[in-house]
Hints:
Blueprint: E1 11-18, E2 23-40, E3 47-48, E4 61-68, H1 77-87, E5 92-94, E6 97-99, E7 104-106, H2 124-133, E8 151-152, E9 155-156, E10 158-165, E11 172-180, E12 230-239, H3 243-260, E13 272-281, H4 286-310, H5 321-325
Parallel strand pairs: 4-7, 12-13
Antiparallel strand pairs: 1-2, 2-4, 2-13, 3-7, 5-6, 8-9, 10-11, 11-12
Helix pairs in contact: 1-2, 3-4
Amino acid sequence: MRSLITDIAGITVGHAHDAGLISGTTAILFAEPVVAGVDIRGGGPGTRETELLDPERTVERIDALVLSGGSAFGLDAAAGVMARLAETGRGFAIGPARVPIVPAAILFDLLNGGDKDWGRFPPYRDLGYAAACAAAADFALGSAGAGLGATAAELRGGLGSASARVQGTQARVGALAAINAFGRVTVGDGPWFWAAPFEVEAEFGGLGLPAAMPATAFDWPRKALPGANTTLAVVATDACLTKAQARRLAVMAQDGLARAIHPVHTPLDGDIVFAVATGLVPLADPLDDLARIGDAAARCLARSIAIGIYEASPGGPAPAWRERHGG
Length: 327
């Protein structure tokens, strides 16, 4: 296992970004349409096609997901991914027509110093198309794709991913997160990550938690503009779930944000978690197995958030963790 969301068979991830723009897009593609759900808890979300993920809606499965910078302009990235999928004959069939189903969510990175003077049309449709074309099992972490222009309190944000086997089942889970949070991912202004109890093999430095909580542990982060922060996440499993179960998986996985960011789900954030299920592994016990998968997904998501910050590169809109704390 790569410890990436692509450890779930049938999932690939692609990035496209522009260094001058200091923004980008990440596309998550599925080899076959997948069951999906969503849970939205932030006060300032920006989304596309999330209503159809409600269990009562007609369309059962989706073809891809998109996470993008650019605020509402970044929602255009989904059109680029749709264009790529349409070229390959993918989509929900209505008679002879096929419509690719591509929900999307965006984060705010318009004030990070990049050149946003893009003229009449923003570049996100083209970035979405390029990200879909680049989708593969291996992909960059840290300052890439939707995480390129992100920040997390006083640090540079980023994109992280992790995976795990689900204890007591045959299923696997994976998570991917683009972190642009108002809250801190570290304990105060120190090097320790709130997600430290869930770390696997020193994947974000192996520092653990401080022996004693510093006085700054729960200090409020820097002042942020309302609606200017968001953590976007996708959790995936190879289990066979219904739309209602996928929705419950997204709800459980939100705990991963609470374990990795302080504070979280504020009026200043647009926090969103998508959940997808490829359906390859049947549930032996619908209640117990789903509870185990949700718990594992929350832990994977907490790890992904810390990894995204740990892997961020120096030279961005805010100091990278490695610039401030070494390593």
